[in-house]
Amino acid sequence: MRTIKWQDGTVITIDQTRLPLETVTLKIKTVDEMAEAIKNLRVRGAPLLGAAAAYGLALAACNSNATCESELLADLEDAVQTLKSTRPTAVNLFWAADRVLGKARDFRGRVEETKAIVVQEAQRIADEDAEANLAMGENGAALINDGDVILTHCNAGELATVEYGTALGVIRAAWKQGKKIKVIATETRPLLQGARLTAYELKRDGIPVTLITDSMVGYVMQKRLVNKVIVGADRIVQDAVVNKIGTFTAAVLAHEHGVPFYVAAPKSTFDLTRTASEVIIEERKPAEVTHYGGQQVAAEGIGVLNPAFDITPLKYVTAIIYEGGVYYQKDFAKFKAGISP
Amino acid sequence: MRTIKWQDGTVITIDQTRLPLETVTLKIKTVDEMAEAIKNLRVRGAPLLGAAAAYGLALAACNSNATCESELLADLEDAVQTLKSTRPTAVNLFWAADRVLGKARDFRGRVEETKAIVVQEAQRIADEDAEANLAMGENGAALINDGDVILTHCNAGELATVEYGTALGVIRAAWKQGKKIKVIATETRPLLQGARLTAYELKRDGIPVTLITDSMVGYVMQKRLVNKVIVGADRIVQDAVVNKIGTFTAAVLAHEHGVPFYVAAPKSTFDLTRTASEVIIEERKPAEVTHYGGQQVAAEGIGVLNPAFDITPLKYVTAIIYEGGVYYQKDFAKFKAGISP
C-alpha cells in the first residue's frame, strides 16, 4: 500500500502521529501544509520525506499563479526554502527538493508544461523509492536465515517510505520467502515510532513482533534473544550512519555481543560528499521528553536534551543494504568512493 | 528527610507513583497494605524495601492477637511470606525480613516484649540504612571531581532509601563539599523513575540536572557530555550487579567510551553466596510498556518483554562504593570473599 499518493492536485497520506489508535487521512493541498506535516512528524521517515518534499514542490507548482517561467521558478525556489527549513537531518528531503527544482530549471519550457514536468518528477521520485525498497528487500533477505530474531529500532517500514519499507522491507522479503523470523521492536522514545508504527505494521502483516523499551537492548543481546539488528538511515555519510536517536546505543551493544548490525537505506540517503562532523543533528523541543500525551511527567524547571538522531561510525556497521546490492565492511572503501560493491 | 517513618504503630511514607506532580502521604497500617504498596511501587528502591519489609513485620507484630510467643512467631512467619512474595529481585527485602524474624525467634520472651523487640529491630534497620548512606556518600565523594558531569540511571536517591540515597548520596556529598558537578538523569522507562524521582530530588536540592531518554546514553557518551556514571543496585552477587533494566546498556557504553562506571550500594544489597545465574529477574506486566498513564500507546495483540532488572557483569564495573569503603576492580576478589577492601 502506498503511504503517499498524488490525486488531482492533492497529496494523500496518513497522519502518523495518530497511529496506531486512529487512521486519519491527511489531504495536503499547499506547500505550507506539507511543511507543517513534516515539522510535526505527521509525515516522517527519511525516504518518505524525499517523496513528501517532491510532492510539496508539485503542490507549489500547481498552486502557482506565475505568468512566466521565471515567476514559476521563483515560486518553486521559495517552496524549496520552506521545505528545507522543516527538518535538517534526513538528506532525502534536500536531495528530492533539489532534484525537482533542477528538473524545472533545466526544462526551460512554458509555465503549464513546467508544472506538468514538476508533478511528473515528483511521481518519478515516489515510484523510484517504491522500486528501490523492493530491490533492497530482495538484496537484504539473502542475509536473513530461517529462525532469525531481528531487532529493529524506530520505524523503517512502509510508513517511513513510499511503499514496503527499508529495514522492514528486508524483513518482509525474508518473511515472504517463507523464513520463519521474529522481530523485536524497540519502542523508540521520545516519540515511540517503534511502539506505534513498527509494531502496528508487523502485527498487521502477521509477522511476530515483541515490543521492548530502549533500555532493554542490552538485556536482549546478553540473553541471546536476538541474533541480528537491521535499522534504516536518515543519512549515510562517508564515515557514519545518521539515524534515529538510540541507533548508536544499539550498534555498540551489537558490536560488544558479536551480533551483526545491518543498515538498509536507498541511495537517496547517501551523502558521500560529507562526513559525520558536518551533519546537523536536529534538536527537538524538551516537551517531547518531559511530557506524554499532553501530560507532564518530569519535574518542572530541569534541563532536557532531545537530539532526534545520533551518529554510528561505520566501524560498528556490518553491512549497508541498498537497492544496488550489499556493501560489507570490506567494501566500505568502494562505498565511500560511490562505486558499486 | 526520612522517606519512611514509624509513628504510633503506623508506617508513614510517600506514594512514589504520584510524584512529582503530587506529594501524597501513605499511612500504612497492616502488612497487607505494605505488600500492596511494594508490589505497586508506591514504595520502591532496594534499601527502602529493606526498611519497608522490616516495618511491615513491626505492623504484623503490633496487629497480632497472639496470646503466646509461638502464635506471635507464626503470625510473623506469615507476614514474612507475604512480604517476600511481593518482588523477587531486591535482596534487601529478604535480608531485612529474615533479620527481624530471626531477632524475634532468638529473643524467646513474652508476647508484648517480643513485639517491642520487633519494632526496635525495624527501627534499627532503618537507622542503619540512613547511616550507611551518609558513610557511602563520603566514601564515594572522594571519587568525584570538581566539574564532573555524572550520568545516573533510575532513582538511587533519598526516595530509594531511608534517607540521603546511594548513588545520589554520593552526588549530594560531593555537592556539599563544594564540587561544581552536574547530573544527567536517564528517564528510565517503563516507569520513569529518572524523570519523575531523580530529576525531582536533584532539582529540589539545587543540583543541576538534565533529563535524557534511555536511548540517548550512547549519544551523551560519544559527545563526551558525561565523564562518570554512578548507579545504585538491587542486589550485588559474586560476579555481577543486578539493577534497574537499562543499567547493563549504560555499563557497556561506558566501557566502550572509557567512562568510569561506579555502583553505590549498602552491604545489605550484597548477596555473596549467589551468582548472577541464580538471580530471579522480575518480569512485570506488559501494560507498563504498551500503555502510558492508562492510555494505550502500542498496537494491540503484540508480544512484550518487561524485565524490571538486568545483570551487569563485574568486568564492566570500575568500583563498588559502600559504607565500608570502595572496592576497585583490583579488590573484587576481596569483595567476593566478603573481606574489607
Can you walk me through this structure?
- The structure is a homodimer of 341-residue chains.
- With 341 residues, chain A is α/β, with parallel strands linked by helices.
- Chain A is built from 11 helices and 16 strands.
- The first copy, chain A, has helices spanning 31-39, 46-63, 69-84, 91-107, 111-141, 167-176, 193-204, 217-222, 247-257, 287-290, 332-337, and strands spanning 4-7, 10-14, 25-28, 149-152, 182-186, 209-212, 228-231, 235-237, 240-244, 261-264, 291-292, 295-296, 303-304, 309-313, 319-322, 325-328.
- In chain A, the strands form 4 sheets. In chain A, strands 6-5-4-7-10-15-16 form a 7-stranded mixed beta sheet, sandwiched between helices. A 3-stranded antiparallel beta sheet of chain A has the order 1-2-3. A 3-stranded antiparallel beta sheet of chain A has the order 8-9-14, with helices on one face.
- In chain A, strand 5, helix 7 and strand 6 form a beta-alpha-beta unit.
- In chain A, helix 2 runs antiparallel to helix 5.
- The radius of gyration of chain A is 20 Å and the shape is globular.
- In chain A, 56% of the residues are buried.
- Chains A and B meet through helix 7, strand 6, helix 8, helix 9 and strand 12 of A and helix 7, strand 6, helix 8, helix 9 and strand 12 of B.
- Strand 6 of chain A pairs parallel with strand 13 (303-304) of chain B.
